[in-house]
């Protein structure tokens, strides 16, 4: 059980109880609405998770350490930006990798770019994002975030 | 036939994936087993919080009046609105895909284009749970440097999106609404 799950389950139960206390019909309507939203997005969601797990297999932590390590230079920077943009690696995997990369002497620019693109850009989740925002806006958002992530990576590398 | 195919299209990848995993386990094909392991892990991560997140969004929809949201984080809310939406994003948790349904409900309640995109931006790099792990692994200097550079950029993206989408009939849609629309038009 992750912390995320604990936070959301607790909050959900508390809100449901409070809501029930005030208005039973409204609570039922809210639960229905939430459940319907979940059911409708469940299949696109599973598709994205399949893509995520295939991407994780194709780009294992060993690959990341090898190509983003000390002295990886411009190539490391480009790899960081591309891998970070395409994949969705959960924080509990990516931050330990980032920390060990820094310990092994990787540059802050490369590590920061990897982390910012990972956080801000999601190519594998684009199908899901398009469901909500439409394809054009989803692509535009990811493109702008990609530019921002690169700028942030470079700036953090200069500051630290 | 093609209508049937259109209907079954979303299930194509899932079916192919399920069959491949099954075959991998029978034949002892290692990559298949590794991918299945990754999938199981992210599936558990997703299923233990996403349904609850949607229920919270549903309750938010029935309880929170549009007027309140519009007043505090609507298009005319200015700097105070930006501050509030950033704080709201910081209180979230989980991967970015969890932010899309929240963005949908905020926009529906009148949060405005600018603040909705600032929400998505701040969600991606300023969530308190994320900052917690980040500070533990990369140090507080890293988090401060990143935030100081990133926040103005993402506020800028919010303004850009507002300017770009202003006259374009932009909406954030939930699949439930799209289905009712289809039913209505057909």
Account of the 3D structure:
The complex is a heterodimer of chains A (160) and B (186). Chain A is mostly helical. Chain A has a domain at 59-159. In chain A, 85% of the residues lie in helices and 0% in strands. Chain A contains eight helices and no strands. Chain A has helices at residues 3-22, 24-58, 61-68, 73-86, 91-103, 108-120, 126-133, 135-159. In chain A, helix 1 (3-22) packs antiparallel against helix 2, helix 4 packs parallel to helix 6 and helix 6 runs antiparallel to helix 8. Chain A is elongated. Chain B is mostly helical and 186 residues long. Chain B is built from ten helices and no strands. Chain B starts with a helix and ends with a helix. Chain B has helices at residues 2-27, 30-47, 50-63, 66-73, 78-90, 99-108, 113-126, 128-138, 140-165, 175-185. At the A-B interface, helix 1, helix 2, helix 5, helix 6 and helix 7 of A face helix 1, helix 2, helix 3, helix 6 and helix 7 of B.
How is this structure best summarized?
Chain A has 160 residues and is an all-alpha fold. Chain A has helices at residues 3-22, 24-58, 61-68, 73-86, 91-103, 108-120, 126-133, 135-159.
The quaternary structure here is: heterodimer
User: What is the overall number of helices of chain A?
Assistant: 8
Share of β-strand residues of chain A: under 5%
Task: Tell me the Rg of chain B in angstroms.
Answer: 20 Å
Give the end-to-end Cα distance of chain A, rounded to a whole number of Å: 35 Å
Q: Order of SSEs of chain A, N→C?
A: HHHHHHHH
Could you tell me the number of beta strands of chain A?
Answer: 0
What is the arithmetic mean of pLDDT of chain B? 91
| Number of E strands of chain B | 0
Give the low-pLDDT segments of chain A.
none
């Amino acid at each position: 059980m992750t912390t995320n799950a604990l936070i959301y389950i607790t909050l959900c139960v508390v809100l449901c109880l409070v809501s029930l206390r005030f208005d039973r019909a409204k609570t039922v309507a809210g639960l229905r609405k939430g459940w319907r939203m979940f059911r409708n997005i469940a299949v696109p969601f599973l598709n994205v998770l399949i893509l995520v797990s295939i991407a994780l297999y194709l780009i294992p932590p060993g690959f990341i350490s090898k190509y983003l390590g000390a002295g990886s230079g411009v190539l490391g920077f480009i790899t960081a930006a591309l891998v970070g943009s395409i994949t969705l690696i959960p924080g509990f995997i990516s931050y330990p990798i980032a920390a060990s990369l820094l310990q092994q002497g990787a540059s802050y620019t490369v590590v920061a770019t990897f982390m910012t693109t990972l956080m801000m850009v999601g190519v594998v989740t684009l199908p899901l994002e398009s469901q909500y925002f439409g394809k054009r806006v989803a692509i535009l958002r990811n493109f702008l975030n990609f530019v921002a992530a690169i700028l942030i990576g470079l700036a953090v590398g200069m500051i630290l | 036939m093609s209508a049937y195919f259109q209907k079954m299209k979303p299930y194509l990848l899932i079916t192919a994936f399920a069959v491949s995993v099954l075959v991998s386990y029978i034949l002892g094909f290692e990559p298949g087993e590794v991918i299945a392991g990754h999938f199981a892990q992210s599936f558990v991560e997703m299923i233990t919080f996403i349904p609850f997140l949607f229920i919270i969004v549903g309750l938010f929809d029935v309880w929170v009046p549009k007027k309140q949201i519009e007043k505090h984080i609507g298009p005319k809310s200015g700097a105070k609105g930006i501050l509030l939406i950033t704080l709201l994003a910081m209180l979230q948790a989980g991967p970015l895909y969890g932010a899309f349904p929240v963005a949908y409900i905020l926009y529906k309640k009148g949060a405005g284009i600018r603040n909705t995109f600032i929400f998505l931006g701040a969600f991606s790099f300023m969530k308190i749970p994320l900052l917690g792990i980040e500070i533990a692994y990369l140090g507080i200097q890293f988090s401060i440097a990143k935030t100081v550079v990133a926040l103005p950029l993402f506020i800028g993206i919010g303004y850009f999106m507002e300017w770009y989408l202003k006259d374009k009939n932009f909406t954030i849609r939930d699949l439930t609404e799209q289905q009712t629309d289809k039913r209505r038009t057909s």
